[in-house]
Design goal:
It is a single chain. By secondary structure, the chain is of the alpha+beta class. The chain folds into two domains: 68 residues; 108 residues, Histidine kinase-like ATPase, C-terminal domain (Heat Shock Protein 90), CATH 3.30.565.10. It is built from six helices and seven strands; from the N terminus they run ααβαββαββααββ. The chain has a five-stranded mixed sheet with strand order 2-4-5-7-6. β6 and β7 form a beta hairpin. α1 packs antiparallel against α2 and α2 crosses α3. The longest helix is centred in the N-terminal third of the chain and has 32 residues.
């Protein structure tokens, strides 16, 4: 049995993502077959293909962010691929600077932190992820931020003074996972910059 409710929730997340990726892959294979048959040039087929790619990218990202981490590692190229696919044609540009493989638990926290930063940067911007000596720092620059102080205080305390919405679940999950890993989330918010560290 899982040791905590968080681990159980992570297993649920992994199961959902695992079960969804197969039918999405099947749709993509079907599109390729239709394309080979000469039906792949229409705008409708293009729209379906882009939607399938987007769904696949989201599931891969969410599987790392919300799924079970265990004792796995992810290579830099795989991590970059997930981030590039997930942020393709979005308002955010993410620069992943680590060049070596990293513990999946750390990448999981980074992905959750990215979701937090995107919430604070709803109009887009650039987020740079760095690590040194076991410490991770995410720095986001944007022309305009949208910060809810009560929501961001959850990262420091791990206690929600407000009822979190589904779109805000990362704010409740990140400090719990960080605490289990022996880390503390710190944040600094300036006029056009957000920094998260753990």
């Amino acid at each position: 049995m899982p040791n905590s409710e968080i681990e159980l929730a992570a297993l649920v997340g992994s199961r959902i993502c695992h079960d969804l990726i197969s039918p999405i892959g099947a749709v993509n294979n079907g599109l390729e077959l239709l394309s080979m048959a000469g039906a792949g040039s229409s705008s409708e087929m293009t729209l379906i293909g882009e939607s399938v790619d987007s769904a696949s990218a989201r599931i891969r990202f969410f599987r790392v962010a919300f799924g079970a981490a265990e004792n796995q590692v992810l290579g830099a190229s795989e991590t970059n691929g997930i981030l590039q696919d997930y942020h393709y044609n979005t308002r955010w540009n993410v620069v992943w600077t680590p060049t070596e493989s990293q513990q999946r638990t750390d990448i999981r926290m980074c992905f959750l932190a990215l979701l937090c930063m995107e919430t604070g940067m709803p109009y887009g911007g650039t987020i740079t992820v760095k690590t040194s000596g076991g410490k991770w720092t995410l720095s986001g620059q944007a022309d305009k931020l949208s910060i809810d102080p009560e929501l961001w205080s959850v990262l420091a305390t791990g206690q929600a003074a407000i009822k979190l919405r589904p779109s805000q679940v990362q704010f409740g999950l990140l400090p719990v996972i960080a605490r289990d890993a022996g880390k503390q989330i710190t944040s600094q918010i300036l006029e056009n910059e957000i920094t998260l560290s753990f």
